[in-house]
Amino acid sequence: MNLLLDSLSRRLASAWRGRDPQAGPGHNYQCRCDRPVFFQNSHCLGCQSPLGYLPEAGTLTSLTPVKDSSEFTVTDAADGQRVRRCANLDSPAGCNWLVPSTDPNPLCRACRLNHTIPDLSLAENGELWRRIERPKRRLVAQLLRLGLPVTTRVEEDPEQGLMFDFLRSTPDGPRILTGHAGGLITLNIEEADDAVREKMRSDLHEPYRTLLGHLRHEVGHYYWDRLILNTPWHAPFRALFGDEQADYSAALKRHYEAGPPGDWPQRHVSAYAAAHPWEDWAETWAHYLHTVDALGTALAFGVDASDLEFQAEPFRKEDLHDPADPDAARFLELINSWVELTAVMNELARSMGQPDLYPFVLSKPAVRKLHFIHQVVSQAAGRAAATRLGIVPAP
């Protein structure tokens, strides 16, 4: 029995070439009235049916209210599955996720990751929190779909779990910095103000800066601790990304004072990735999540290679971290499909006078690192599945 899960990216790659039209979840959902609905919707604008996101199934579903109860049944569930709304539905976060009726926790799997939320006595903080929670839920949904371990450090797993602090700097206090430390991801909620974030993007000479990008990058640091540190992946990580024991503070100081080395595009996925091996990993991890999610969404809406009249020189097996990897061919389909899709996405953005949606060019060394991350994710997903089945003990 193959304990490794077929990763989402493998299925997406097959579908892109037209061999598996049902492969891979995306973000194309329909209400029971057949109207299109979207990931963040809590009710259908057409028939007004209540909607909710089922994290275990990875789908947005119509709901049927249970009489004289705060619970619902899942419309399409043959077994009459009963659920209730996340307690944060009526908060500024507006969470549309669902909780099994048997779960005593009033919060969904995404909201229970929150350690600190903004001070809601300040009216503007509620709107900033809402803007952060939407991409955070998208991040958590993707991590669950990939089969990665997602537990809350707040109450489930104080040693290896994940949690979030959403904070704001005060006039008389230190500036809140976005970052990760020991399973805690801190995000300065001022980043949810478009004007503030755009100014920082410009000041730091970044081609891309989004809330979802921040979250994907920071969760990459968390998974480095969980999946790389003191594991068999640690030595190959150092061979590929560099020695993370290099002075981190000095590396960042040098990066912000002198900028990246001139040859960074030939070695890294972004300029910031050149600052330190940890940042190289986190930036590459974020790009892997970008690739899987965006390509999956394109497939879910019926876009595949036959729709695109664009050809690029493809990456080949010898460009990968491990050309002998049994999954190498499927990964190559994934990454080459991504190059095709982003070329067209960027042209569409330019036709509207907008910046490129994906303002990056992948080099062969960057693709090697992406393949390494694909291998790490695939193994972690397989171990998680085996643990759920009781075949191997939890780490």
Helix-strand blueprint:
Blueprint: H1 8-16, E1 29-30, E2 36-37, E3 51-54, E4 59-65, E5 71-74, E6 82-85, E7 98-100, E8 114-116, H2 123-145, E9 163-167, E10 179-181, E11 184-188, H3 194-203, H4 211-227, H5 234-241, H6 248-258, H7 277-300, H8 328-351, H9 364-388
Parallel strand pairs: 8-9, 9-11
Antiparallel strand pairs: 1-2, 3-4, 4-5, 5-6, 6-7, 10-11
Helix pairs in contact: 1-7, 1-8, 2-4, 4-7, 7-9
Biggest sheet strand line-up: 3-4-5-6-7
Radius of gyration: 21 Å
Number of helices: 9
**What is the count of β-strands?**
11
Q: What does this molecule look like?
A:
By secondary structure, the chain is α+β, with helices and mostly antiparallel strands. The chain has one domain (8-388). It contains 9 helices and 11 strands. A 5-stranded antiparallel beta sheet has the order 3-4-5-6-7, with no helix packed on it. A hairpin with a 5-residue loop joins strand 1 and strand 2. The longest helix has 25 residues, at 364-388. The protein is globular.
Features:
disordered N terminus, 395 residues, 38% helix, four-stranded mixed β-sheet, disordered C terminus, alpha+beta, single chain, 11 strands, five-stranded antiparallel β-sheet, globular
